[in-house]
Give the backbone structure.
Amino acid sequence: MTFSARCLILACGNALREDDGIGPFLAQWAEQRWRDDARVRVLCDHQWTPEMVEDVAQAESVIFVDCATDCEPGQVRTMAVEPATDATKLGTHHLDAGQLLASSKELYGETPHSSLLLTIGAGSLEMREGFSEAVRAALPKAQRLLEESVRRLLG
Amino acid sequence: MTQTITIDPVTRLEGHGKITIHLNAQGEVEDAQFHVTQVRGFEKFSEGRPFYEMPSLTARVCGICPVSHLLASAKACEAIMSVRIPHTAAQLRRMLNLAQMVQSHALSFFHLSSPDLLLGMESDPAQRHIFGVAAARPELGRAGIALRRFGQHIIELLGTKRIHTGWVVPGGVTEPLSSAKRDEILAMIPEAYVNLGLALEAYKQIADQFQQEILVFANFPSNYLGLINEDESIEFTDGALRLIGPSGNVIEDGITAQQFTEKFGEAVEPYSYTKFVYYKPLGYPEGSYRVGPLARLNIVKTTGTPKADKELAEFKQFAGGPVESSFFYHHARLVEVMHGIEKIEQILADPKILDKHVRATAGVNRLEGAGQIEAPRGTLNHYYKVDDNGKILWANLVVATGHNNKAMNRGVLQAAKCYVKEGKFTEGALNRVEAVIRTFDPCLSCSTHAFGQMPLQMTLMSADGEVVDTLTR
């Protein structure tokens, strides 16, 4: 099976845990936004799992999308991601962006030439649907940053 | 003075568990227990829900084998509806169940157990994980990822999503299979055989290095339970249960889902949230048994597919009767994956597989119903009672980890007695005690359905290891 894409948007999160649903929300938006553009591929799941390594390895560039708990609620950030070097926190059911890149390099000998992580600070992770006020207010900025990032990565 | 060694958490399992090893004054292992420390409660909160919601509700028990709960639940609902589902729907469900078995066994073998098998029980724990395997044997790492993906992609093609698909419903499935999807699955099959071949080759090369583990990894005579067809071939989705004894003698055959509650009981022990299932005529614990890949291969005469039958013949040579060591669960999984790939290929060749009639409909025609299937880890039974309007009055889920619970505990004790000496242990020794549990590949999320008061025991110990107080409720 081949899953190559110029730009892979790889989101994760749980739409039933309030702001953790930002990944699925942006993935759904991206699917609509680039519906007719074969260069962009969107994947989303509750968590990033080892079998996604193959998708990452086959992509020219990747944008990871997730919520963050280490910043202010509603804060939108993009940052470059490097392959992880610390193996002590490896899980078998879920990985973070750096671990996916490291595994891509280990297993397939290659990584995307550009890798970005886009996050929005979570205000609440309660068991309900919808977003906190801070995250709801930040959605347009997140969509704009995602749009700009994809455009830049596609050249 | 007695001492207690605790392994908490037990790693590379589906869920969270704990092992306690009790030493006597001489520092020898006296007892050992495997605790399942999480609690869920699906049976309770499903009360009052319409019965037709049960497949989707109970599928949320687990993210690894939701298909198992979907299917067992749908079958229990169909017993309430008194309907027989269309042939094509039955075949599509069978394929879905096999796809899940393939992906789950791939996860167990490659991701959870291959670090022990390929890198060694004594290898550096910082490297003893799937990425350590990837570094040492990248071709196997890629094969593991691809084989898991093969199963998951079939589930996604059939049910539109990999986890918690809503495609299986009481009465059949919501959508027929398209020719494009059939062709896509067929195209993936050659690569799946290649990847499985790599795993089988690697396993057979290293299995001989684990003679000591084979001897003490839950290696004892026991009973075995699993679904089987009338022609004595392996079955995962239909058929009836067969229970065999330690010498391979058939204790009881043809046990239907409806008869399950009458034949099997659930014992409770104070150290675990998971129940201990046993065959009532033999009592507890004598009526305990093992389920899952090892049990399934022990109870059948054939897999019903040629490549897997060749592997089965080799497997059965390990013993004159049932293969007893749980170490061979690993091998049995690979044999079952071979069968799964072959059977999926056969199902896709069924001339009626693209038939559009895939769902039967009916209301409440019975006030109780049960369904049973083989989950990757073993037999799964759902049993519901409903009122006249179809609202759930009572539900019980009997899962593979409950069936295997007694054997897992005996296995932990057997391994601990071998590897923990004079109150001393090495990291490799403790890893082996954990590895016994991993052979069963238990799903602890599924297994925690104790009814009544939860068995909970808290032990307060002083700094020198003396038990000061015990609280039991």
